[in-house]
């Protein structure tokens, strides 16, 4: 059986710039409605919806379908960034920036204090993806996070999930769609059709 899976990264969050992982950073109502309108124009507003439980994803899902029809998937939350999760960059003490810099250079080798390791994050997402594929029966929109989409692509394409380039060079912008074609059967087969296609651009970008 063939199904289309659309991985949608949530809209741009409000508030100061930060590493928003498990923190429940909101998305403006106007942005949520603009995403919904863009999905409707592409014929994607009436699909089965699977969502991260965080409001920046679930808030949009609730605007797309009846809440009772949404499949909420906790394992597709963003990575947990420990001590830095949700802390505005301009409030991080100067003596702790070296930790962030090392993390960005090599997240597998230098996990953030109190945070999720990259290995644990990848295993969480990859396991959830395997379960999702096993249950897939129809075209589906997955409303999730940039890091989750990167780890799904690493699993699907058999890439090295430890490679920092997945985060520094693979652009998965806010309100962007990644389209996968999934054929399930005796041997599942996934084709990546598009990656990180913007529904629209925010001002200044």
TrEMBL record:
<protein>
    <submittedName>
        <fullName>Putative phosphoserine phosphatase 2</fullName>
        <ecNumber>3.1.3.3</ecNumber>
    </submittedName>
</protein>
<dbReference type="InterPro" id="IPR013078">
    <property type="entry name" value="His_Pase_superF_clade-1"/>
</dbReference>
<dbReference type="Pfam" id="PF00300">
    <property type="entry name" value="His_Phos_1"/>
</dbReference>
<dbReference type="GO" id="GO:0016791">
    <property type="term" value="F:phosphatase activity"/>
</dbReference>
<keyword id="KW-0378">Hydrolase</keyword>
<dbReference type="GO" id="GO:0005737">
    <property type="term" value="C:cytoplasm"/>
</dbReference>
<dbReference type="InterPro" id="IPR050275">
    <property type="entry name" value="PGM_Phosphatase"/>
</dbReference>
<dbReference type="InterPro" id="IPR029033">
    <property type="entry name" value="His_PPase_superfam"/>
</dbReference>
